[in-house]
Amino acid sequence: MRYDLQKQLNQKQALAQLEHLISKGARIELTEKRKQRTYKQNRYLHVILTSWGSHLGYDLDETKHMVKTHLLPSLFQYKKRGLTFYRSTASLNTKEATTMIDKIRKTAQDETGFYIPEPHETELLQQMENDSERYFM
Which CA distances in Å does 56 have to 44, 50, 87, 101, 108? Predict the structure, then answer.
């Protein structure tokens, strides 16, 4: 069950459920559900990844792989039983997605001379999105 603990009813329901499980001696897992990135943030991220990737000669999947393994491994990398794995960009919350976007914008500008518009530069972003769609269609 998921409960929004900012709502009084959900708080009472969560406590009642916890008390019930304690009385049963149940084994449970309690985790915090973080806010996933917004649709707007997700769209922006895909536009900049696609556009910067095409500038570098990569497709979207290759660009994501490059970001995960070379640009931001600390954000994506985890180890399990001696093997290294990379989590999906879909698992990023809003704060992590912002970190990724900021790093991509800075690296693109500083290291490859590629300007990525800020989210509020809607006209430039629309042009970038149109260019990237034309490149990959």
Answer: 18, 10, 23, 17, 10
Backbone angles phi, psi at 124, to 5 degrees: -65, -40
pLDDT, tens digit, 9 for 90 and up, residues 69-91: 999 999 999 999 999 999 998 88
Residue 81 backbone class (left: φ over 0; alpha: ψ -120 to 50; beta: rest): left
Beta bridge partners of 80: 83
Maximum alpha-carbon separation in the chain: 62
Residue 44 identity: Y
Task: Give the pTM.
Answer: 0.70
- For 94, the token pair is 């809003």
- Give CA–CA dist 97/132, Å, rounded: 21
Q: Which amino acid is at 82?
A: G
